[in-house]
Specification:
globular, mainly alpha
Length: 287
Amino acid sequence: MKKSTFLHLRFPFSFYLLPVFLFGVAVAQPENWIRLGLVFFVLHFLLYPASNGYNSYFDKDEESIGGLEHPPATTKNLYRWALILDGAALLLGLLVDWKFSAMLLIYGLASKAYSHPVIRLKRRPILGWLAVGVFQGYFTFLMTVYGVLDITIASLFEWSWQSPALLSSLLLLGSYPMTQIYQHDEDMRRGDITLSLTLGVRGTFYFTGLFFLVSSVGFFLYFKETFSIQIGLLFVALLSPVCLYFTYWFVMVKKDIYLADFRHTMRLNLVSALMLNLFFVIFALNI
């Protein structure tokens, strides 16, 4: 594997996608630790890196991308490794069952549609936004629950699973445009009309702030009604650093729009992922 390929697979970036998995595990409370470990490995070390690499190969970014400030040029080696990791994910997914492997395939196809030149959902601001929010949130939550528990596909449509899955997407739908805010120039040159580009820099902040507020209220009510008000309040308390940094950054950007850059975006992502992962670990251990 070439060094450039390894960098574009962006294994560390899986940390930012970990909260939805931890949320699913916390709610599911699985007892089969081997199966839990298998699902974790397949998602975070095979499926997500494969998606990262595949999309990087077709995007051919010259400026910063998520988790990689100075991306090297992509090669055919990256494309091959993305497909190898995808294939490994599907094969290992069969150790759970063929339905879980099929869910991995569906996720992978949706991810590929985001950047592949024939479909390229990235050029369609609303459809691309919905695809990312639904598959990285709602679909991943249900895929995690099905993977770690011995349940039927039909049972995933029960409200006890649907409500947290929908909340996962609500959170992703708000945060995703913020991850595009520093890519406006390159997206314009390439003809990719992302939602963040459509909203503009300030509009992206307002949009994300509104979704963050709505999703936070939704999570609080879910935890309060399903578990306890203490869990709901803990969620609000641990997410407060995210809100504070977001507000601080927005104030700075209003003074200097060039501060809507890669480094500030990654700091927001890091604070958010740290706080969410910490909350869901505490939540899982105290149910």
